[in-house]
Amino acid sequence: MDAVLLSRLQMAFTLSYHILFPTLTIGLAWFLVWLEARWLRSRRAEFLTLYRFWSKVFALSFGMGVVSGVVLSYEFGTNFAPFSAITGNVIGPLMSYEVLSAFFLEAGFLGVMLFGQNRVPPWLHFFATLMVAVGTLMSAFWILAANSWMQTPAGTELIDGRFVVSDWWAVIFNPSFPYRFSHMLVASFLTTAFVVLGVSAWQWRRNLPDREHGAGSAIKMALAMALVMAPLQILLGDLHGLQVKRDQPIKVAAMEGVWETERGAPLLLFALPDMHAERNHYEIGIPKLASWILTHDPDGEIIGLKTVPASDRPNVPLVFWSFRVMVGCGLLMLLFAGWGAWRWWRRRLVHDSIWLRSLPWLIPTGFVATLAGWWVAEVGRQPWLVYGLLRTADGASPLPAERIAESLLLFVVVYSLLFALYLFYLKRVVQNGLAAVAAQPLTPLLPRSTAVSLDEPTGQKE
After folding, report:
1. What is the number of other CB atoms lying within 10 angstroms of the CB of residue 422?
2. SS3 281
3. pLDDT tens digits, residue range 172-219?
4. Eight-class DSSP state of 117
5. Contacts of 132 (CB under 8 A, 6+ apart)
6. What's the N-to-C CA distance of the chain in angstroms?
7. Cis (ω within 30 of 0) for the bond into 178?
8. In whole angstroms, what is the distance from residue 78 CA to residue 341 CA?
9. Helical segments of 207-308, H only
10. CB-based contacts of 346, cutoff 8 Å, min separation 6
11. Whole-number Å distance between alpha carbons of 85 and 161
């Protein structure tokens, strides 16, 4: 067993597990802001019911995200101690900023958001919801700033074997950060849109009382979000692809399965990359389309994998197929968003149809696309931890392979149990539905003379 490979697998597993939850909570937090704003403005009971229902989903997912995310900080010190020492001047402050700003902001207002409704004035509760949503963005900002610096390092010098910051603005706003940050945020909103679509479609079809408590409105709001985010994600993906081609051409070569530098490269719909033979088997492609997409010129040049030694290439099959899974999921979500818009225009949006019955099956699509995209980004960067400057083998801790294998197995078992419990409770929340949430009273802690009632459509003080 290879200790470095096992450390990479352990980090990959825990990171892939963790990212599922921020992907949902970032978008869901802003969906809650929108729902509460609609409630405060219109006083329509369905918006309050939807807010209370989706806040339960948010609470479960947020808790799982916090628990699974804490482990990653320890893995930097245990599995990648040399990396932590070499990059500590850069990564350490960025991670600290995330804790001191985003985590403290979320922790400070989360209790008010989840348990303060009808216990604080409506404006204060809305402010708490807004602050939690802002905290999710700030968390993504700092984490992606750190990770993007590893992809496209800037603003630092390597002195005596350690990175020293010369320009913090260049470190944070490194060449890949704007593209990766916006790409991740839109992925979160798109994922949330299809989660809300899938759950609300199931509730509309299976729980008739839920139709009276906002299931149809949730479908419309989520579809509107998907109609904006799906095309926007494709645009951002194109811009990000141009940046990756400029700064990490070997990653692009792996994504497209290009071994020899060539002009007019085809877009491969199917191929079996062979790293030993340095070629692809069973290619099926569209002529010149890859060059046109990546350079906006059908005869544009794409640098091949053979321009660097084999030791400097990533795992080509994994990057190649992860990229196609990501793009395929994105196109599928765009197709269903467009299909839904057509049905909405025809005023048949919530009529029983193949579209409505298919939505629950599309709930995992955004998560799969996000995971595949992260694998493209992280595996495509290999064999570098800091691209072009620090190899993964030089940043890994010299641990016994057996100990890493044991801890990896333990992580898989424990995390699988946690995920099963998460799905169990999430299923209960969804099956109870909107009607059950609407029937639950909001009990104030304040005296009746000063309590603010949100149960009544008028929201007047009792």
Report:
1. 17
2. strand
3. 999 999 999 999 999 999 999 999 999 999 988 886 666 677 788 899
4. T
5. 29, 105, 106, 109, 110, 113
6. 68
7. no
8. 50
9. 215-247, 249-256, 289-295
10. none
11. 9
